[in-house]
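It is worth pausing here to work through a concrete case rather than discussing structure prediction in the abstract. The textbook approach is simple: state the sequence, then state the predicted structure, then interpret. We follow exactly that order.
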Amino acid sequence: MTTETGKQELVTLTLKPNEEERLNRGHLWVFSNELAAVPKTVPPGSLAILTSSKGKMFGIGFYNPNSLIAFRLLAREPRPIDAAFFKDRLSAALARRRRWLGEARSFRLCFGESDGLPGLVIDKFEDCLVIEALSAGIERSLGPIVEALTELFKPAAIHARNEHPARVLEGLPSESVTLAGKLPERVVIEEDGLKFVVALGAGQKTGFYFDQRDNRKAVAALAKGRNVLDLYCYSGAFALHAARAGALRVVAVDSSGPALELARESAQLNALQGKVIFEEGDADGILEEFGTARRQLMPDLVLVDPPSLVPARKHLPKAIKAYVRLNSNAMRILSGGGIVVSSACSHHVSRETFVDILREAASRAQKAVRLVELRGAAKDHPVLLTMPETEYLNCAIMEID
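Step two, the predicted structure:
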């Protein structure tokens, strides 16, 4: 059966009996095993209408017969999914950012499901926009999305960093391509008065981790008068916030030479190059050096912020072991009054699991560790309460007794 909305002819998908509860509660995904039938002849990313087994319409969304997440809900009422639709949703997303971030020029503009656009991530870097298309439906809709963004922002460039592992699950290739305008090699953004050099077409994710913005402020408030060890520093955002706040010394470590070059450029822009030592190295190796007293000046504030170790749920057991090891070794090198700020960025690591990891790490380190504060992502990464998958960043501030 097909239904028309505007000029688009849509397939109708039907849920199995008793599979509508999650949708009724506000979730936006339907898994393939929840559908009465999975039409294989429909191209991935096509629009579809979803109904219950009794014929109740749930709305319109993207359908991918080759993905575990077979359907992603876009709207509760059928409507054309065109440039006007994306402009409406992106305008609303921008208005939310303005409410919380004021006139900031660089931030996460769109956070997928939380902004009513499942599978779409957009970061704004001054007058450039970087997209991640994480679903086949968003990939097929890049034309109207670019049209909407052009109308809203008139950006200098729109670039797609389509290299996220989630694309493999959607049957999509890994690529980095400019969709509009001319992408500069470097752009300088500002966060709380600090300038950061971002390589838009290279580096990790879209180029900068806006999700840790508020946590960087929290670290800055703790850093004055302390020796700071920043593990997995990437382009140095935590390190520079700590240095400006009055840290006695900051050692920032990352395994990526290009990322450290960006960090050094940013340090020079902020006249902080004399306050931060950037080292290319392995976090485990550095912690071992401190743990065996091969380094003289011990830190009293350690930041543990590894990249995601859990690309899929099947990797969770191995990742938990790695998180426990890292945090235990960080706790072990600190004396009384020392602080560990630890992060984990995966929705597969729930807050409860995260606290269990830290509890086990403290036990192994044989330290009395107090959890002072649990934090999450910045305000431009809002959590949709009916979709726990949108809550992915955990950050803990802990004090060593």
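Step three, interpretation. The longest strand covers residues 393-400. Confidence is low (pLDDT under 50) at residues 1-6.
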